[in-house]
Amino acid sequence: MSHIETLTKYVGHFVDALWRNGVEQVVISPGSRSTPLALMMTEHPQMKQWVNLDERSAAFFALGLAKESQKPVALVCTSGTAAANYMPAVVEAFYSRIPLILLTADRPHELRDVGAPQAINQIQMYGGFVKWFHEMMLPEANPPALRYVQQQAARVMQQALEGNPGPVHLNFPFREPLTPDFTIENIWSSGENTAKPALYGSAQLDANHVQQLAEILETSKKGLIVVGPQEDKEFANAVVHLAEKWQLPILADPLSQLRSGAHAKDVIIETYDAILKSESVRVKLQPDFIIRFGAMPVSKPYLFLMKEYTGNKHIVVEKHAGYREPVGVDTQFIYADPAMLCEALASIPAAKPETWLPTWQEMNRIAQEVLHDDMESKELTEGIAVQDMLRETPEDSNVFVGNSMPIRDLDSFFFATDKQIQPWCNRGTNGIDGVVSTALGVAASGKRTTLVIGDLSFYHDMNGLMLGRNYGLDLTIIVINNNGGGIFSFLPQAQEAAHFEALFGTPTNLDFAHTAGLYQLPYTLADDRTAFSDALQESYNRKGMHIIEVRTERDANVSWHREKWQKAERQLLDYLDASHA
């Protein structure tokens, strides 16, 4: 058997087995050494291919695809630094528990560590940021070798999805020539001979342990349910039912999937970040117990509440074993299906003791009233831009926000709504890189998607615009341009006047109209709320990408936010003092 026939069958059987085990999409970055994988993926009759020239952007785009589809997505690149450019997205995928399958081409063993071009050490190059690494054997096409590649395709899926999902890495050494021959017969595996996908079940808590939890709920008046970032769309009804049954407030993170949709929202406290900003308010709201589902919330005031928490009943529920408790308080971890646990607790007959749910509901109303924008005002602040965007965004759409200020403004101004809005953000490592590309991956689902992003984060990932333009993806990009790192103006570093601008403010002084021109995209500079609303409506009524720039001043933004928070604090303290008089 010739080298080309061996190569074709070896890679073909792997690619087909990968698809049969559930990989439906692959993001390919062109290169020479990856030719066998790239061509076989492209020729496969069922695999959806995306081509992205920039490996860093490609990896974040795949991250967005996997986030939205909740299925593993494959990545293919050539050898050398191409594979190294995957690293930022791999780290984000690992910490945000998103399954990616990294398929890196490599030089064969005889060309390693001898000065051959484009050859670096790719063995375990992602270190502890992948769940599993395997160096594939050199291509052969005998029956044992073909079974081997099929088994590795099944195993890579199993490793990506087992327990908490995450990235996995296969390294493929290929000798030249590299071009497969598609005239060869039987290049794909037959379904009967392919390793079968693994089957998974859901973990349920023992009935005795459920009863112990129920006793905590029944004997404590001041309990909190906290739902941090999580992506289970079926969880909302279960946790709301539990909260209604036991009359508990739910502090709902903007990425909890609880602030929007058809489920009941009377127990949802979406303004808890504003409520807890004041230490004087927090001291009056010490809970008897806390049950948290999902990751740690975005809210820093909630972190302060946890640091000040004097109780000993802190419970974290995770679907699979893991450790996400950054405060260091004594914690009872429960590893079970969250929705099933909520249903089990809600099914236990219980008395309804006096609770503080009405207190939280009234505080939520007060904070909403303060935070809601003045509809008569034409001033376009960063917070008002987020509120107007949420008001205008279409039903059943995605909203992706950047880190730093955009996610915090979403936390503050994303009020409960029956409109179906799916919020997204890269909160695994909270970085500002790769945001445009990840949002485009989410937009590739076909749903209208809106990205709210700061100017620095937009600058970090302008390369991602190329793929969005080439594929005609529908993405409305709102660039909040405060000419630098706006979040630092809220932090103690703002007092370091001598070096603040150079090291923290970091103004770019860029005109993003030129970015739009470079990528041949429509662009609007929105000077006021009317222009912003008109630009949003125009964007939502057209196909493709559209950049809308909103220019703000960092100092004015800080003053606007602090005025809101201080007003909320005064009114909340007045209410709490009066209610306990």
From TrEMBL:
It is an enzyme of class 2 (transferase). SUPFAM superfamilies: DHS-like NAD/FAD-binding domain (SSF52467), Thiamin diphosphate-binding fold (THDP-binding) (SSF52518). Pfam families: TPP_enzyme_C, TPP_enzyme_M_2, TPP_enzyme_N. Residues 436-550 form the Thiamine pyrophosphate enzyme TPP-binding domain. Binds 1 thiamine pyrophosphate per subunit. Its EC number is 2.2.1.9. Homodimer. NCBIfam families: menD. This is 2-succinyl-5-enolpyruvyl-6-hydroxy-3-cyclohexene-1-carboxylate synthase. It comes from Terribacillus saccharophilus.
